[in-house]
UniProtKB/TrEMBL annotation:
<feature type="domain" description="ABC transporter">
    <location>
        <begin position="18"/>
        <end position="248"/>
    </location>
</feature>
<protein>
    <submittedName>
        <fullName>Heme ABC exporter, ATP-binding protein CcmA</fullName>
    </submittedName>
</protein>
<dbReference type="InterPro" id="IPR027417">
    <property type="entry name" value="P-loop_NTPase"/>
</dbReference>
<dbReference type="GO" id="GO:0022857">
    <property type="term" value="F:transmembrane transporter activity"/>
</dbReference>
<comment type="similarity">
    <text>Belongs to the ABC transporter superfamily.</text>
</comment>
<dbReference type="InterPro" id="IPR017871">
    <property type="entry name" value="ABC_transporter-like_CS"/>
</dbReference>
<dbReference type="InterPro" id="IPR003593">
    <property type="entry name" value="AAA+_ATPase"/>
</dbReference>
<dbReference type="GO" id="GO:0016887">
    <property type="term" value="F:ATP hydrolysis activity"/>
</dbReference>
<dbReference type="InterPro" id="IPR005895">
    <property type="entry name" value="ABC_transptr_haem_export_CcmA"/>
</dbReference>
<dbReference type="GO" id="GO:0005524">
    <property type="term" value="F:ATP binding"/>
</dbReference>
<keyword id="KW-0536">Nodulation</keyword>
<dbReference type="GO" id="GO:0017004">
    <property type="term" value="P:cytochrome complex assembly"/>
</dbReference>
<keyword id="KW-0547">Nucleotide-binding</keyword>
<dbReference type="Pfam" id="PF00005">
    <property type="entry name" value="ABC_tran"/>
</dbReference>
<keyword id="KW-0067">ATP-binding</keyword>
<dbReference type="InterPro" id="IPR050763">
    <property type="entry name" value="ABC_transporter_ATP-binding"/>
</dbReference>
<dbReference type="InterPro" id="IPR003439">
    <property type="entry name" value="ABC_transporter-like_ATP-bd"/>
</dbReference>
Length: 262
C-alpha cells in the first residue's frame, strides 16, 4: 500500500477536508472573490457553478496554493495553507484546462516525473504507475509521446498524473470541457469512485447536467460572491425549477430584480 497515512487516515468528520473562511482575492482594485466561506467533507463532491468571470478559477487556484489570497483562511485536511503549503500540496491533486503534460514524454514518463517530485520511493512509484495505467485504460498509449495523443487520451494521462501521490482532495477546473460524451462519462465515473474512496472533490463546470449528476453540494458563484448554495435538489426546489439551469437563471434574475446583487 502506498502513502498509507494519506489513504487510510480517516478524516475526522467534524473537521472538513476543505475549509474556507472569509476568502478574498483582489487583482489591483478589482475584487474577483469577495469574502466567501464554505467547506467540503471527506467523500463529498462540491460543485462551483457560475457564469464567465464569476471567480471560479480564481477560487480553485487559491485553494490549490498556486496563487496568494488577499484575505481569509484556507485549511486542507486540517493544514492551514498559509503556514503549511508543503503539507497541503501533498494532499491535493489540482487539474485545470491549462495544465500541460510534458508533450515529448509519454504518460508513463510524465507520471514518473511527477511521482519523483512528490518524493515517492521508486519501487512504490513504479507499482502506482502500473495501477493508474490499468485504472485509466491507458495500456495502448502509455508509452507514446503525449503530443501524439488525442484530447481524451491526454486528459486521462493528466488525471492519472495528479493521482500519482494519492491525494485526499481533488481540485478540478473544467476538466470535461473539451471531451466527448464517452470521455466525459469516464471522468464522471472516476469522480464517483474517488468520492467512494473518501476523497473530497471541488470542481467547476459550465455543464449543469454534470453538476446535477455528481454534486452533493453546489455553490452558485456570481461576481465573486456566493449567490446561493445547497444540494441540486434544494436549489431546484427553492426556485421551483425543473433543472439546475433554470434554478441558476432564476436566482440571477431574482437577485438582479431585488437590486441586491453581491
Ligand atoms: N490575473 C488577473 N488579473 C486581473 N483580473 C483577473 C485576473 N485573473 C482573473 N481576473 C478577473 O477576475 C474575474 C474572475 O475570473 P475567473 O477566471 O476566476 O472567473 P471564472 O468564473 O473562472 O470564469 P470562466 O468561467 O470564464 O473561466 C474576471 O473578471 C477576470 O477578468
Amino acid at each position: 500500500m502506498l502513502n498509507n497515512d494519506l489513504i487510510n487516515s480517516k478524516l475526522d468528520p467534524l473537521n472538513p477536508a476543505i475549509h474556507v473562511k472569509h476568502l478574498s482575492k483582489t487583482y489591483g482594485e478589482f475584487k474577483a472573490v469577495k469574502n466567501i466561506s464554505f467547506s467540503a467533507q471527506s467523500g463529498q463532491i462540491v460543485g462551483l457553478l457560475g457564469p464567465n468571470g464569476a471567480g471560479k478559477t480564481t477560487t480553485l487556484r487559491l485553494l490549490a496554493g498556486i496563487m496568494a489570497m488577499s484575505a481569509g483562511q484556507i485549511e486542507i485536511c486540517g493544514y492551514d495553507i498559509s503556514q503549511h503549503l508543503f503539507e497541503v500540496r501533498r494532499r491535493i491533486g489540482f487539474l485545470s484546462g491549462d495544465t500541460q503534460l510534458y508533450r515529448r514524454l509519454s504518460p508513463r514518463e510524465n507520471m514518473n516525473y511527477f511521482g519523483l517530485l512528490h518524493q515517492l520511493p521508486p519501487a512504490q512509484l513504479k507499482q502506482r504507475i502500473e495501477q493508474l495505467i490499468e485504472q485509466f485504460e491507458m495500456q495502448s498509449f502509455a508509452h507514446r509521446p503525449v503530443e501524439k495523443l488525442s484530447s481524451g487520451q491526454k486528459q486521462r494521462a493528466n488525471i492519472a498524473r495528479i493521482l500519482v501521490h494519492q491525494p485526499r482532495v481533488l481540485i478540478l477546473d473544467e476538466i470535461t470541457a473539451s471531451l466527448d460524451i464517452i470521455s466525459s462519462q469516464f471522468m464522471m465515473d472516476f469522480l464517483k469512485q474517488e468520492k467512494q474512496r473518501g476523497c473530497s472533490i471541488l470542481f467547476s463546470t459550465h455543464i449543469m447536467s454534470e453538476a446535477e449528476y455528481l454534486c452533493d453540494h453546489i455553490l452558485l458563484l456570481y461576481q465573486g460572491d456566493i449567490l446561493d448554495e445547497g444540494s441540486p435538489e434544494q436549489l431546484m426546489q427553492q426556485s421551483q425549477a425543473a433543472n439546475l439551469t433554470e434554478a441558476f437563471l432564476h436566482q440571477i434574475k431574482h437577485y438582479s430584480q431585488q437590486g441586491n446583487l453581491p
